[in-house]
Specification:
The chain has five helices and eight strands. By secondary structure, the protein is α+β, with helices and mostly antiparallel strands. It has one domain: archaeoglobus fulgidus dsm 4304 fold (2-Layer Sandwich), CATH 3.30.2170.10. It has an eight-stranded mixed beta sheet with strand order 3-2-1-4-5-8-7-6, with helices on both faces. Helix 2 packs parallel to helix 3. The radius of gyration is 17 Å and the shape is globular. Its main location: cytoplasm. InterPro entries: Endonuclease-V.
């Protein structure tokens, strides 16, 4: 285990839907200490997983999976890659919305644990608080590793943008890096802002930045915007996806 993960409580990934639901309910109600952006440069790990190309349907249990974690230093010029790690193996469940942790959680955890240095925060290609049980894979991976986390996806899971009249008040300016002009709208679940739709580059479709473990939706939006380089997808996720796809291609 990485030194930075040594304080994480023991975590066993659930193996069935009932145990997953129980774990998600527990994590959704937890109140871990909040995380904030460091003043200077810090380490971000992008985490992503791909499965067999061309498999029938959305994906079945036992499909081969390739997970990648790419460690970047950010906050001092363009993101700089520091290290990367991989994990491969059989995926634990079929693909199904809302229970992605059964399928991908253990391999993503193994990839993060294989990094030579612990990141300060995880940026995960998955949902966080925007989830039927308020604890998607991005949040669970943070809890499993003991690291703060956010999620970045192309669309919301269950949260929706409220009508203008019902829109919750914005809590204030985004943390540093955050460009309010790039934040299109809050995404709300049960009256709480759980994510933001943000446009990382002019003329491109927006992405969704999700609150995760020890993070708010505002911090997620700022981190997603602050780690984007020359693509629609924030750099940590983009590089992790590229690495995972290269692993799949070689296999």
């Amino acid at each position: 285990m990485l030194p930075g993960m040594a304080n994480a409580p023991p975590f066993t990934w659930p193996g069935d839907r009932a145990s997953l639901a129980a774990a998600q309910d527990t994590l959704a109600c937890a109140s871990p200490p909040p995380w904030s952006l460091p003043d200077g440069p810090f380490l971000v790990a992008g985490c992503a997983l791909v499965s067999t190309r061309g498999a029938a349907g959305a994906g079945g249990s036992g499909d081969p999976g390739w997970a990648a974690a790419v460690l970047l230093e950010v906050g001092a010029g363009p993101p700089r890659e520091v290290a990367a790690a991989d994990a491969t193996g059989a995926l634990g469940a079929a693909f199904e919305t809302g229970v992605l942790a059964l399928r991908e959680g253990p391999l993503l955890h193994a990839a993060v644990a294989a990094l030579p240095r612990a990141p300060d925060v995880l940026v995960v290609h998955a949902a966080g608080r925007d989830h039927p049980r308020r604890a998607g894979l991005a949040l669970m991976l943070g809890a499993a590793t003991g690291l703060p986390s956010i999620g970045v996806t192309t669309r919301p899971l269950v949260a929706r943008a409220p009508d203008v009249a019902d829109r919750p008040p914005h809590p204030g300016p985004l943390p540093r890096w955050g460009n309010d002009a790039c934040v299109l709208e809050p995404l709300v679940l049960d009256g709480a802002i759980v994510a933001y739709r943000v446009r990382t580059r002019a003329g491109l479709r927006p992405v969704v930045a999700h609150a995760g473990w020890r993070t708010t939706a505002e911090l997620a939006a700022a981190l997603a915007l602050g780690t984007t380089a020359n693509a629609r997808t924030p750099e940590p996720i983009r590089r992790a996806l590229e690495r995972a796809r290269r692993l799949r291609a070689r296999a």
